[in-house]
Amino acid sequence: MEWLDRNVPKLVLAPSCVAILVFVYGFIAWTAWISFTKSRLMPRYELDGIGQYERLFAAPRWDVAMNNLFIFGGLFIVISMVIGLALAIFLDQKIRAEGVLRTIYLYPMALSLIVTGTAWKWILNPGLGIQEAVRGWGFEGFTFDWLIRPEMAIYTIVLAAVWQASGFVMALFLAGLRSVDTEIIRAAQVDGIPTHRIYSAIIIPTMAPIFLSAFIVLAHLAIKAFDLVIALTGGGPGYATDLPATYMYAMAFSRGDLGQAASSAMIMMLVIFAIVVPYLYSELRPRRDQ
Amino acid sequence: MTSRTVLTKRLSRDTLTTPQTGSVAKGRRNTMLRWGLYAILILFALFYLMPLFVMLTTSLKSLEEIRTGSLLALPREITFAPWAEAWSSACAGTQCEGLRPFFWNSVLMAVPAVAISTVIGALNGYVFAQWRFPGANLFFAAILFGCFIPFQVVLLPMAQMLGLMGLAGTIPGLIFVHVIYGIGFTTLFFRNYYVTIPQELVRAAKVDGAGFFRIFFSIFLPLSLPIITVSVIWQFTQIWNDFLFGVSFSGPGSQPVTVALNNIVNSTTGVKAYNVDMASAIIAALPTLLVYVVAGKYFIRGLTAGSVKG
Question: Start and end of every ABC transmembrane type-1 domain (chain A) (predicted)?
Fold first, then answer.
């Protein structure tokens, strides 16, 4: 009985730990194993070296997917951060109706990426969408047909993703701006330091952890972006807007190529690993204030 | 609010917007800046609102009006027929019952999954924050890492496992998956919230002979409303909006609303009904939008109190 009392916390935690052990780490191990086999339609367990990875990196479609990940990920993260920070600073100037504006900026985050994709697919549709609307205003030569141009379609995904996530970044930054010590700011104002200098030299540097959080959240969204591509372009035209996530899904569920699906999933995993592990390390490092 | 804080507020407002008062030219420049500021903020507001506006107006137009009119025009004649069709007769693949059955699938999936993962997260967070044991940090890191894995890496084995468990293509299967991969975040939320509660409280309660659950129910649970709100909103949004698990693990009778929406939009049979697509998209988005409008501010407040500061 006393043993039970002492170990209640561990017993409460045990099911979650077992579940995570099996369904996260065990499953990762399983996928890793399969990525080193000749599995096709059905899993096979005889190891076969790095053949799947060689096939993966030789596949032009994977090449496109990885390129797209860097284009999309880079632009999405940078643009969302710039817009998010700018809006947060602008909203921090004792703006009237701040609450209303904040709500408007933030609501896209509540939507499913499938809904976002559906809406933007309709807006960007060259036949009846924004292109036609602008032409209707008298700008006959206006073209905005990125959605159907293979070399431009990836930027429509950037556009929709920025629309979805930049308001959330704004909220993160705004919370950061508000948590900066007002005494320091007031002292700087009394000294006559101009507002833009107060931001660039005092406020923004103290928000470094928020930049990091925002970056992690956005990078994570970018690498997992799957729904948006499916809903907006379906990976097309051709496979011009494939991302690793859609490549993996196509291999797993429509091509019946488990080996390729597993090896592409492992590469995605490694990319996230490279970004998240340093972050988790800094989060979990013992802090003086605790 | 005391008069002193009012005064300092006013002071800081004046100094922030007009750093050097006194010169009229400067003041005028600042007024201009202020107008520019509002113009930019309003432009962005229009950018964020535009898709919602387009979805809503398109869903209320007839197909004829969509073909002849402008995307950004208000409907000349409002019709609710697309909404009725989206709800009860639009075709998702071969099934022509509208979104209704799938909407209920999502409800049946999201409600238990949110409740279970929140309860588990609360208990885990309570242990990690207040009942530390050697090695607890390692377990916490292991669980936290689970938040960040790309789900693609567990997709194949999970499909096999659900098959083995007899849960493939069922709603309980989807609930199971969402609970497992939601635990990481809910644990993180509750742990970060509960570490702010002084450990002396637990120590004193222990001295008084209260046990693990007694302390949880009488001290921690009553304080937990803000973080329960965060956890419920986060989990509900994640699970309701999920597409990857839905499309991978559901069967014809258990597809969630996001999968059905995608099927309706990509249905190739008959005339492309954009107004029905848009009505379907709004219906699929309504629950999370509603949650956001009603409780969104508590979410940001709770989140910034917890996870941002770490």
Answer: 66-279
